[in-house]
Amino acid sequence: MSGISRIAIGQLCSSSSLNRNLETVKRLIGKAIDSDAQMIFFPEATDYISRDAAHSKKLAYGSPLFVEELRGEIRNVYEKTSKKIDVAVGVHLPPTVFEMEKGENRVKNVLLYINYKGDIVQSYQKMHLFDVDVPNGPIMLESKSVQPGHSYADIVESPAGKLGLAICYDIRFPEQSMELRSRGAEILCFPSAFTMRTGEAHWELLGKARAMDTQCFVVMPAQSGQHRVYEDEEDDEAGKRDDSQPRRSWGHSMVIDPWGRIIAQSSQGSDTELIIADLDFTILQSVRTNMPLWQQRSILNKSLQNE
User: Region Disordered: which residues (predicted)?
Assistant: First the structure.
């Protein structure tokens, strides 16, 4: 890639209502097109945020329709206006019939890359699941409701550059980012729903580290704010609700360049917001030329193999 590519991030605060989340996504896509963005990145779990594992498994059966309607919206925009925009969006997918027959009823946490024609050209299933007990924070066991992926996705030849796909907790595993760079990535994306405690401590630090490790642009679309996890309920009986431990996400969506500089980020305290960033590939080329880490790493690896 050369020159400058304009991208957008659609930061949002997903609820448990897939229909309302879809309407928010559509609005942000419209704004991104008006800003001349070539593609837009949405966070992990854009389709819904659930109350618990059982709730997620129930809501996931509505996700295929969410995806189909989103694909239709992207396609209609192009057919009506001739304006092109590709979309990377984090969603859940339910288990297949075959998986259910084998006793696997957990959902999949996936990142879909949808081109301007509405075609799904790439899909990545999250490999590293967030199973942790954060000190003075929540106990999170993503594996209770999510089945892990087992392979990298091929690099996407996006209009913004060569894109490597990852999701949220994957950002803590530099080996994955390094592998994506080795496969040709110029941009890495980490759609996320970071907790408040881990976000405050590590969100920006991790993004900058992965950018400098790989000499790639790093795009970090984030869920932000307190999630309304009862919006899917038709029955609004107060006695059925438990808001004693509300689900909040850190937000702070950002784009980082290969030198580790933040070149765009969301406003402080913002939930739903469109962030625009121009990726200058002369910076990427300059960083990789002036500090040839990949050539040096290759030489070192060959030396170690010969010992």
Answer: 227-252
Backbone angles phi, psi at 3, to 5 degrees: 80, -150
State the catalytic residues.
44, 126, 168
What pTM was estimated for this model as a whole? 0.94
Q: How far apart are CA 176 and CA 125, in angstroms?
A: 13
What phi and psi values does residue 255 have, to the nearest 5 degrees? -125, 130
Beta bridge partners of 192: 222
Mark 11-30 as b/e (b = at least 16 C-beta within 10 Å). Answer: bbbbbbbbeebbebbeebbe
Does the pLDDT value for residue 13 go beyond 90? yes
CA–CA dist 134, 29 (Å, integer):
35
| Structural domain boundaries in the chain | 4-231+244-306
- CATH class for the region spanning 4-231+244-306: alpha beta
Of 59, 167, 171, nearest in space to 113 by CA: 167
Alpha-carbon span 65 to 18, nearest angstrom:
9
Query: Which residue, among 247, 49, 53, has the nearest Cα to 141 in the 3D structure?
Result: 53
Structure tokens given for 231:
């919006």
Q: What pLDDT sits at residue 304?
A: 62
In Å, what is the CA distance from 10 to each residue of 40, 92, 150, 175, 285? Answer: 7, 18, 27, 27, 27
pLDDT band at 237 (very low <50, low <70, confident <90, very high): very low
Give the per-residue pLDDT at 307.
Answer: 64
Average of per-residue pLDDT across 14-43: 98
Sign of CA dihedral 103, 109, 115, 116: positive
pLDDT for 268 = 82
- 47 contacts 41 by C-beta, under 8 angstroms: no
